[in-house]
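Hi there. Long-time user, first ticket. I'm pasting a complex I've been working with (about 442 residues overall). I'd like to know whether the download I got is complete or cut off, because the file seemed smaller than I expected. Thanks.
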Amino acid sequence: MMKKLSKAEENYLKTVYHLSEAGKKNVSTNEIALAINTKPASVSDMLKKLSDKQVISYIKYYGVSLSELGSKMALHIIRRHRLWEVFLVEKLNFSWDEVHEVAEELEHVNAPLLIQRLDEFLGYPKFDPHGDPIPDEFGDLKTRPRVKLSDVPLGNAGKIVAVNDSSAAFLKYLDKVGIYIGAKIEAVDKIEFDGSQELVLDNHKKIFISKEVGANIMVLL
Amino acid sequence: MMKKLSKAEENYLKTVYHLSEAGKKNVSTNEIALAINTKPASVSDMLKKLSDKQVISYIKYYGVSLSELGSKMALHIIRRHRLWEVFLVEKLNFSWDEVHEVAEELEHVNAPLLIQRLDEFLGYPKFDPHGDPIPDEFGDLKTRPRVKLSDVPLGNAGKIVAVNDSSAAFLKYLDKVGIYIGAKIEAVDKIEFDGSQELVLDNHKKIFISKEVGANIMVLL
DNA sequence: ATATTTTTTTAGACAAATCTAAATACTATA
DNA sequence: TATAGTATTTAGATTTGTCTAAAAAAATAT
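Hi, the file is complete. Here it is re-exported in full:
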């Protein structure tokens, strides 16, 4: 039924999924090329193939979106990726900035029994170490209402539930400042000059973050 | 230094290692083709490439053997494979006949930190679920003196330490009979007619096995 | 609305890994 | 030793995924 895709095809599918999540609409050839560090011509070629396989809907010059089938397959890849991330952090003591590249490889091992057993072994986690939801075996995912930390009104407090940037550089910075998934955060002040914020972490630690950082941290109020 | 090989190249290397271990030092093109279910012409092509990369020593029409470098690389692949097998059996509750295909995929994820941490997580196991030794990070492996069960002299007892055939069919048969790695086994009688054996398992269970089965079970006396 | 710029697609080439069919080299036998 | 029979290699084709260069379509600016 759901025939196996190659590693390259899986990566394209995943990329289209992430880009259409972020922007909510049709994804352009150039966007994809940029995201996976390849040339637009290569993207065109691949989109044609994925379209033939019915996993995307593709109209020349107008961009691309996932089909129902493609969406489901993308969510399965993401499920594998995020389960492995949980495994790496919780069982193998990786730090949250080290897991991404390794999970990029592990996600392509497509063995349903493996993933099912891994899920069980990990205690059916609902979120990965970066706070992103893990799709279940049917491709459904649990979402939490979230706002950007930069949008939290002054005086309000919430819990950090996710980050929008998983680069090692960003995550290492967060470690240094003391920010982690699950931390309590209170918006104390906003500096007009540059949009930076003054915050209180876990009721006692006063920290300052830039507007850019605040826009990449998601909070549950 | 040790540049990365493709999945296909890794599989060839591993195959040459296993075939040269199981008997002669030079491995033939046809043997390899048979082992990895491909055509001799494809093998010739690949051997040329592997020879260019200095991982095998290859003389046309005379067969191949691994170079020092190739040997080391093969042992690293085998290390990854066997560590994953231990993980699958001990942590994810796979049975020993289910692990091979999955480990075949996982072994190609080449991330040194991952394997190092996995090894640690598993408690630095020295043998995989089939009793085969796991090479350490330098490619060295612990060997146990072993004899074929079919060669155990009458009246002697030993411990089952490995199997030479990891096919699901064989392993399922062993489960059915009650044979497992670590079991105590005593050679009670040998039937002249067909070479089959009468054995006592764990001091109490009388079983009979064929000559073929006995030749694929290894015992530590 | 026309011209210019940007984006996207096509055309043609290449490397990896495979295949079939044909040629060549070893081996065994009469 | 000549020859029939395997084993192995080469030649040429195919598929997948990529690339560069050039053409075509869409977007933007004048």
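A couple of notes from our side: The interface with chain A takes residues 88, 91-94, 98, 101-102, 105-106, 109-111, 113-114, 117-118, 120-121 of chain B (CB under 8 Å). Chain B has a mean pLDDT of 95.
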